[in-house]
Write a structure and sequence with these properties.
This protein has 14 helices and 15 strands. With 550 residues, it is an alpha+beta fold. Helix 6 (190-213) packs across helix 9 (291-307) and helix 11 crosses helix 13. Helix content is 32%, strand content 15%. The strands form 3 sheets. Strands 6, 7, 8, 9, 10, 11, 12, 13 and 14 form a 9-stranded mixed beta sheet that branches. A 3-stranded antiparallel beta sheet has the order 1-3-2. A 3-stranded mixed beta sheet has the order 5-4-15. The chain has helices spanning 9-19, 72-80, 141-144, 156-164, 166-178, 190-213, 225-229, 277-280, 291-307, 405-414, 417-430, 454-470, 485-505, 530-547, and strands spanning 65-71, 97-100, 121-127, 145-149, 152-154, 219-224, 238-245, 252-255, 264-269, 317-321, 331-337, 345-355, 383-384, 400-402, 437-440. The longest helix has 24 residues, at 190-213. Residues 229-413 form the Mab-21-like nucleotidyltransferase domain. Its cofactor is Mg(2+). Residues 58-71 have a biased composition (Polar residues). Belongs to the mab-21 family.
Length: 550
């Protein structure tokens, strides 16, 4: 990057501040091994009717207001109490509320996506004030939330107001994503690489110490997830490290049956190892690996190694949280970085135990996708000790997720960067403060967690890559280090169009595991929160269009 192109200190400070903010969006997807077991409640809470989303109808002419509907009887009751209508939910913004009984006064010239109109209801408009349109990372209440009520998702205020933020949004998309050498949102600076190097050295030191303290638990550690793919966005605040047990690879045989959840397998101890007491203590009465004791032993040894000193590789890095050993499932380390640009910066590191059975290609996954992976057996498929929900799977502690992260990383590492940046751009926009959450006035909790995950977008991207490979798309023939904003934007649009089509069909097939629909929770047979998916997809599509307008 040329000196004149480097971001100013104010931009860096703003970007770093934003990078420290955790995304409010929940990640989902059946095959994303970096996350804890799904802790959501029973499937009943996911049953919603699909909302009708209207386009091209008139909107309120008032600036900075959002429409919600209320029953006329409720409105009369409020009037009889001598007060204005108030929204009782604790998440609703504190504001004055005005009642418009005549919707004929709305402006027909205003461009919008929808408005709700019912003979049995009146419109309540909630005043919201913009916090400023010049900040690249705005905390604007108008952008923060879109309301849903009585089957309608009210986009119009957000879409109209987003245009006022277009300048900073364009600058963000261009300077911090399309022109960024490494990742979206982060400006290029040496402290990013310093943090990554310190974390890697710390994890490597810990693995070496674990091998000394307990040779049976010797592991090969490798970076996984978005860092391995080259698709990390935001600050260097999250890392995934796969810990592959060296002494277990040849001792267990994967057992795949139709009775297992899609994408999971059990690991049976070989008969030749039946007298090996070092291994039999980690198997159940049926001879299958039980993850609980193994994870506890590994995590306890890692904690002991770190507490023993000499492991943390930088004076700027401080341990904040050790691994939890009481629950027998995947946990994470947490550190604080106190540096020059980053002040008291929180970093979380997922420690993902894994086993790589020798000479094994799972029956349930499809690897050869028209040359996207040229040599599928160059690296063994790993099984991560990530277990399914105990609510739906018997003997959950003996079922482990088949990891496809190595295959995903190899595909994304091999494609031209202009193509890859299309996915990074869309993924980055999804996690910005421009992307709203849906506030559902018909639900008890109100504020809905995001349902479109980065993994869903990546799956759409992989499907589009396969289609492009079959069609001999010339963009896949570009050199790895070439640059083309037009190509990147085109690919971002292809991904969101694939997402829209999948939501319309209520099916997003896993790229590697046939039979898995990423839009369906494994406990039910219907798409969860269809109207939220539709609304988020439309918001993301519109956000992409505004962000890339010249």
């Amino acid at each position: 990057m040329n000196v004149q192109d480097e971001p100013g200190l104010s931009e860096i400070d703003t970007a770093l501040h934003c990078a420290e903010l955790s995304s409010p969006f929940a990640q989902s997807g059946c095959l994303h091994e970096s996350y804890e077991t799904d802790s959501r409640e029973s499937p009943e809470i996911f049953t919603h009717s699909s909302a009708e989303i209207k386009r091209g109808e008139p909107t309120q002419s008032d600036t900075n207001v959002v429409s919600v509907t209320m029953n006329k009887n409720d409105e009369k009751k409020n009037q009889s109490d001598g007060g204005l209508a108030d929204l009782d939910d604790e998440h609703s913004p504190a504001s004055h509320v005005y009642v418009h009984e005549n919707q004929d006064t709305v402006s027909e010239s205003s461009s919008s996506w929808e408005t709700c109109n019912s003979a049995d209801s009146v419109v309540v408009v909630v005043q919201r004030e913009c916090s400023g349109t010049k900040a690249m990372y705005p905390d604007c209440p108008i952008l923060r939330q879109i309301d849903h009520q009585k089957g309608c998702v009210m986009f119009w205020e957000w879409t109209e107001h987003l245009v006022e933020h277009r300048g900073p949004l364009n600058h963000y998309a261009k300077k911090f994503v399309l022109d960024c050498r490494y990742m979206g949102l982060c400006p290029d600076n040496t402290e990013n690489t310093d943090i990554a190097a310190a974390i890697h050295a710390t994890i490597t030191n810990a693995a070496a110490k674990v091998a000394q303290l307990n040779p049976l638990l010797k592991c090969d550690v490798s970076l996984s997830g978005s860092w391995a793919e080259g698709t990390k966005i935001g600050g260097p605040n999250e890392f995934d490290y796969k810990w592959a047990f060296v002494n277990f690879n040849d001792s267990f045989i994967p057992e795949e049956t139709e009775a297992h959840p899609f994408g999971y397998t059990r690991l049976r101890l070989r008969e030749s190892e039946a007298s090996n007491h070092n291994l039999t203590r980690y198997v159940d009465t049926g001879g299958f690996l039980d993850s609980r004791n193994l994870i506890r032993d590994l995590y306890t040894t890692i904690n002991d190694a770190i507490f023993g000193g000499g492991i943390i590789a930088s004076e700027c890095l401080y341990l904040r949280k050790h691994l939890k050993v009481d629950k027998g499932s995947i946990s994470k380390l947490a550190f604080r970085w106190v540096g020059t640009l980053y002040k008291d910066f929180l970093i979380e590191v997922d420690i993902v135990p894994a086993i790589k059975p020798s000479l094994w290609t799972p029956k349930c996954i499809e690897i050869n996708h028209f040359g996207l992976i040229t040599s599928p057996k160059e690296s063994n498929t790993s099984v991560v000790l990530k277990t399914p929900s105990p609510r739906f799977v018997k003997n959950w502690n003996a079922h482990f997720r088949i990891s496809v992260s190595e295959y995903e990383a190899r595909i994304l590492q091999s494609i031209p960067l202009p193509v890859l940046r299309g996915y990074i751009l869309l993924k980055s926009l999804k996690d910005t403060m421009y992307m709203p959450q849906i506030y559902d006035h018909d639900q008890v909790d109100g504020l809905m967690e995001a349902t479109i995950s980065s993994y869903m977008l990546k799956t759409c991207f992989l499907h589009e890559l396969k289609a492009a490979k079959v069609a001999c798309d010339p963009t896949l023939e570009l050199s790895r280090d070439s640059k083309s904003d037009e190509v990147s934007i085109t690919w971002a649009k292809r991904i969101i169009e694939r997402m829209e089509l999948s939501i319309e069909r209520s099916e997003l097939k896993s790229f590697f595991v046939p039979g898995v629909n990423l839009l369906i929770n494994h406990s039910v047979t219907v798409v969860n929160d269809q109207y939220i998916l539709e609304a988020e997809c439309q918001c993301l599509s519109h956000l992409l269009n505004v962000a890339t307008q010249h």
